[in-house]
Amino acid sequence: MQQDTRNFSIIAHIDHGKSTLADRLIHYCGGLSDREMEQQVLDSMDLERERGITIKAQTAALQYKARDGQVYNLNLIDTPGHVDFSYEVSRSLAACEGALLVVDASQGVEAQTVANCYTALDQDVEVVPVLNKIDLPAADPDNARAEIEDVIGVDASNAILCSAKTGLGIEEVLEAIVQRVPAPRGNDDAALKALIIDSWFDNYVGVVMLVRVVDGALRPKDKIRFMSSGAQYLCEQVGVFTPKSVSRDVLAAGSVGFVIAGIKEIDAAKVGDTITLVNRPAAEPLPGFKEIKPQVFAGLYPVESSEYDQLRDSLEKLRLNDASLQFEPEVSQALGFGFRCGFLGLLHMDIVQERLEREFDMDLITTAPTVVYEVVLNDGEVIHVENPAKLPEPGKYQDIREPIITATIFLPQDYVGPVITLCNQKRGVQVDMRYHGRQVQLIYDLPMNEVVMDFFDKLKSVSRGYASLDYEFKEYRSADLVKLDMMVGGEKVDALSVIVHRASAQYRGRELASKLRGLIPRQMFDVAVQAAIGSHIIARETIKALRKNVLAKCYGGDITRKKKLLEKQKEGKKRMKQVGNVEIPQEAFLAVLRVEDGK
Amino acid sequence: MSTRRIIPLTPASPPAAPHPPPTATPHPPAPPPLAVYVHYPWCVRKCPYCDFNSHTARAAAPPEAAYLDALEADLQAALPQVWGRRVHSVFLGGGTPSLLSAAGLDRLLTLLRTLLPLDPLAEITLEANPGTVEAARFRDYRAAGVNRLSLGIQSFNDRFLAAIGRIHGGDEARAAVDLALATFDRVNIDLMYALPGQDMAHALVDLRTAIASGAGHLSCYHLTLEPNTPFAHEPPALPDDEVAADMQDAIEAELAAAGFTHYETSAFARTAQQCRHNLNYWTFGDYLGIGPGAHGKLSSHQGIVREMRHKHPEHYLAAAARGDFVHLRHTVGAADLPFEFMMNALRLCDGVPAALFTARTGLPLAAIGEALATARSAGLLDADPATLRPTARGQRFLNDLLQRFLPDS
């Protein structure tokens, strides 16, 4: 049985054609009829389709009749395609024996691909290089092959040439999966060990888990236990996705499928956890399980304060399917009631924001993203601070440590100069630089707070979009960090406080103050906009008072238009947030918080 | 002169009626003073900043006889609404009503006197533009009963007159003012400031020319770009807000020094020269509006009604032939009355007595208690509870003050 099974995933950079290839494979194996064949089946969320990324791992069990005449069960396990989801990727890969390394033959290797490929190689996953888009005139298979060998170090001489778009080479890909990906070697008779690859919430059946059975077998009515928490549930249903869900009597060793066990909270089914049987538990869980912790925090506030409850409901609904999203209520003087939310990374934050706005129709103000700092108090206690407003006053702590990441950047050599300059500006320390043909691989240690601020956007702009980035957490390191507060009319605007390096505080303070001056409308009185570190003012701008706001003429004529004008002014004020006696429009917060988008 | 002006409060108010239940349509306990506005819709040329209901006559001359016939029928039809009420002022506005022949004007005023109890001392104002002024005609206007002339001078400087599309020049403007003052006891000069290319010195030259002329009333308007005007579509380069505000400060100071009282946002008058007709608007009095696009506001025990005549002259004339004059009519509800009252009353620099609110709207002062309290604590409204008077800041930021009286949307 296991001899006929192949578990594989696809590693590819965004836009290199992973989803198109997956769809081709499903179609070829008859998983869906033409009529059912919606474009890019595996990326089921609109957002994913638009951004070309996969957020949740999904799967398809395919029946492929190979050239040797035998029918194989091929389990395609889709992997998330972004740097924020590297843990999920590692769990998906842990469930596979093989991976297709899909590289755009016209573009070559990207950082993301490399990182995921290394993850695969670390877990002894067989990597099968596939050169996609060979139908394009710009395709250069030889160069791409050389790059794979040079950068990743896998033999690419027998890389498969295909075009997912035209269908060319699809059969060769399937043959390679059968011949080159090892069959699973689980022990049917051993105690059950099933790896949770992904879990999500279904309105009708509760939490659905996608699992890879490593050893043993899992059947409905089995009593199961989660090895990280010890929680026990009754297995209600097992099955596979073709990609439609189909019930089965058993998930045997080596197979991939879904489990439903009447679980209501997605927290209970953590990605990477091991499921075993209560009657006959495994001695040890599968390796690699980690509790995932948010790395990036930001405050989310409804533009209309009356929509606070709606925001909470929406976040709760999102969380049903996204265990990595954390949130707790937060009150800002300037923005009112909202939530402090924790995300895996910036992309994760963007996705949550966009889903809230698109699917739940929320208007949001999001504060500047911040990382988690370790603050050593005077008495030696270490606290974690994920909100600048919560940083103790200077003098009450002896040290702040900031998270440092190791960033791997791939880019064409033409852009090396500006990218190095950028990394240096962001307090980066170069670890390595290597040339691979036309590509350069830069490795930098960077403070994560500099990265979440605006690094992605700047990297994209200085490299004209050609640079790709992957990062992993390295360590906490002491740094000379200060809290920069913004004050309007003498009142601190808590939502605008940021933690920055002392060396850049002056610059940031001036920049923020001048930006705010341009965004806050003139009031009936002069308004001072100041940037301060503690009680020390480091920048100041003045918004000159408006001289008047009055209509020149009003006689017995038509008052409706005058009334409308004033109603519009009043409506505008309603959407403003009151800080002290200064009215600040939402747009000012949005524009300031959208740090340096325009640049 | 006392700065406290006499407000024509309704005499001998009946004993305070119980406050109307919230569902009843509010109306004043007794009808307020009544004025009549007559709109003359034609101009020689339409100015690019003007958003009034004015039209360039298509034919060689506007159809005067047909217009006067229509006005007569309009007034006849409206009489039941104002039956028996004395008329305290008449205002002929436009457009350019000084395009009307003296005989035509005489016919109109005779008509008003015949059909309405026109107070013998009523203020009768005619708007005139300098480009349309003739000495003989002015004398005839006066003979017909006009006792106040309002001149649309705007500037005495050819350059700025051309910039705002006026048909007259500086010399004509000066001649018109002299002629007006030689003919009428009471003359208003409309001036505009913050004109395209104008600086402080220019603005003050215009102002001093107007003061020196001897006119008893000045209206000084900040040029405003109104929507749906050529200036709104292609805005000219205007002095910036700081310069314009400085001009306003200087204008107010010069006029005060010259003995003018600043009594409304844009209006300045020597002793006893205030415009009674406009004061009636600002004290939320009643007015009957006849002629194309004219607005009226009339109180009765059934409530306070606003109405508007058919707007386009041709449409008005055509509809009048069928006995149809009113394009829109609605009763102002309790939610809208406070704002409508305040929008007028707070334009007056001295405001109005607090009691006028109930006298004109029929609503208890408590209906706006909260807005009054916050406006007072914000320093926009005078703290004296016996008056509704904007502070100096309230006058400058009148829009911010008035917003507090808008109904909650």
UniProtKB/TrEMBL annotation, chain A:
GO molecular function: GTP binding; GTPase activity; guanosine tetraphosphate binding; ribosome binding; translation elongation factor activity
Residues at which GTP binds: D15, H16, G17, K18, S19, T20, N132, K133, I134, D135
Membrane topology classification: Peripheral membrane protein
EC top class, as a word: hydrolase
Gene3D superfamilies in the cross-refs: 3.30.70.240, Elongation factor 4, C-terminal domain, Elongation Factor G (Translational Gtpase), domain 3, P-loop containing nucleotide triphosphate hydrolases, Translation factors
Cellular component terms (Gene Ontology): plasma membrane
Reaction(s) this enzyme catalyzes, per UniProt: GTP + H2O = GDP + phosphate + H(+)
Pfam families cross-referenced by the UniProt entry: EFG_C, GTP_EFTU, GTP_EFTU_D2, LepA_C
Keyword Protein biosynthesis assigned: yes
EC number: 3.6.5.n1
Span of domain Tr-type G: 3-185
Name of the protein in question: Elongation factor 4
Organism of provenance: Pseudothauera lacus
Gene expressing this chain: lepA
From TrEMBL, chain B:
GO terms assigned for molecular function: 4 iron, 4 sulfur cluster binding; coproporphyrinogen oxidase activity; metal ion binding
CDD domains linked: Radical_SAM
Chain positions covered by the region annotation Disordered: 1-28
Designated name of the protein: Heme chaperone HemW
Domain Radical SAM core span(s) in chain numbering: 28-261
Segments traversing the membrane: none
Keyword annotations: 4Fe-4S, Chaperone, Cytoplasm, Heme, Iron, Iron-sulfur, Metal-binding, S-adenosyl-L-methionine
One GO CC annotation: cytoplasm
NCBIfam families: hemN_rel
Keyword check for Phosphoprotein: no
Ranges of biased composition (kind: Pro residues): 11-28
Cofactor(s) needed: [4Fe-4S] cluster
Family: Belongs to the anaerobic coproporphyrinogen-III oxidase family. HemW subfamily.
Presence of the UniProt keyword Disulfide bond in the record: no
GO BP field: porphyrin-containing compound biosynthetic process
Subcellular location: Cytoplasm
Role summary: Probably acts as a heme chaperone, transferring heme to an unknown acceptor. Binds one molecule of heme per monomer, possibly covalently. Binds 1 [4Fe-4S] cluster. The cluster is coordinated with 3 cysteines and an exchangeable S-adenosyl-L-methionine.
Domain of life per record: Bacteria
